[in-house]
Write a structure and sequence with these properties.
379 residues; alpha+beta; 9 helices; elongated; three-stranded mixed β-sheet
Length: 379
């Protein structure tokens, strides 16, 4: 034998098929004419291709190891370095050397997973705090009852594509300076499925699914907040060809409350009391999430102070317990007094020595122009 194919690929004579393929791919990336156009490199590339064509074929390899003509093992070929009848697989390996094995050959399935779906659900504060159960209307794709997802009319079935013979792709042979090259593309007649549906289902037009409205019951856990998404596995869109459904996500939107404002798991509200009630103390009834409760306004309460009600807020979504209800107190000063009220207030101020109060001043924030003036003056 004039050429040592093992030496051409740089492998041992007892090398495995995996080792032979790895050596060929490494050399193909290095010596391919698109990468290295030098004429000597092109000749070397033809040599490694011829060597791989023989050593990758068990029948040819056996003939070669016994000292015979390996090309006669398959009734001839494209010659050394050529892409003949036995060289098409080599071209695939060359493409794999550059692009890997990402491309999946063969027909693609008509059955695919469906898309996920999302629906918005509005709930009130009480439902968010303690949880609830809701019935929702969902409009999604479901399996066609007429064809059971097959896409073919009742009494018919999909037929093997006569153009690609079920392979899902068609091949074309072209000639290049390297010899014959085979390229493949999805079959234009069956769109790569390998089968055609001569009589589509009249209900779903061959898609295997139809749109339908259905009712689902959703359990809303206590403590959900705006934007919380609840996943319902397998309740989304059914896939083409009756494929498995995706998931349904229920996005929570909490409606504003007339009294309470939510901040995390705490609730806040404001109660306005007259000046006299703040001074003398009082009790204010408040309808909380747990029922009617009296808010204790202690004597001398100042505007801006707050009264906490522990454990009267929102249930913690993760973990036990609840947040707090914070009642902010706002003291209302009367703007209009009749003569008797004014007399009584003046008498009270005289008793308290507050006829001419000096007031208490505290450092405050400077205005913008004052700060700019101080900056220019170097203060």
């Amino acid at each position: 034998m004039a050429t040592d194919y093992y030496a051409v690929l740089g492998v041992r004579r007892d090398a495995s098929q995996d080792e032979i393929k790895k050596a060929f791919r490494r050399l193909a990336r290095e010596l391919h004419p698109d990468v290295n156009p030098d004429p000597k490199t092109q000749e070397r590339f033809k040599e490694i291709n011829a060597a791989y064509e023989v050593l990758s074929d068990p029948q040819k390899k056996q003939v070669y190891d016994l000292g015979g003509d390996p090309l006669s093992a398959s009734g001839g070929g494209g010659g050394a370095g050529g892409f003949g009848a036995g060289g098409f697989g080599n071209f695939s390996d060359i493409m794999d050397a550059f692009f890997g094995n990402a491309a999946q050959r063969g027909p693609r399935s008509r059955t695919r997973r469906g898309q996920d779906a999302m629906i918005r659900l509005e709930i009130d504060l009480n439902e968010a705090a303690f949880g609830t159960t809701k019935d929702i209307q969902v409009d999604t794709a479901v399996v066609c009852n007429t064809c059971s997802g097959e896409g073919a009319a009742p009494g018919t079935s999909a037929q093997t594509c006569d153009m690609c013979r079920g392979r899902g792709e068609v091949s074309q042979v072209t000639r290049s300076f390297l010899g014959q090259v085979m390229t493949s593309r999805p079959c234009p007649q069956c769109q790569g499925f390998g089968t055609v549906v001569p009589t589509p289902c009249p209900e779903c037009a061959g898609d295997g699914r139809i749109r339908s409205r259905r009712t689902l019951t959703v359990k809303i856990p206590a403590g959900v907040d705006n934007g919380t998404r609840i996943q319902l596995a397998g309740e989304g869109e059914v896939g083409p060809g009756g494929g498995p459904p995706g998931d349904l996500y229920v996005e929570i939107h909490e409606l504003p409350h007339a009294v309470f404002q939510r901040r995390g798991d705490d609730l806040h509200c404001t109660v306005t009391v007259p000046m006299t009630a703040a001074a003398l103390g009082t009790k204010c009834p408040l309808e909380t999430l747990d029922g009617l409760e009296d808010i204790d306004i202690r004597p001398g309460t100042q505007s801006g102070q707050s009264v906490p009600l522990h454990g009267r807020g929102i249930t913690h979504l993760r973990g036990g317990g609840r947040g707090d209800l914070i009642v902010h107190v706002e003291v209302m000063t009367p703007s209009k007094l009749d003569a008797e009220q004014e007399r009584l207030l003046r008498e009270l101020s005289k008793l308290r020595g507050e006829e001419r109060p000096l007031g208490q001043f505290q450092p405050g924030q400077q205005g913008l122009f004052s700060r700019l003036k101080d900056a220019f003056n170097g203060r």
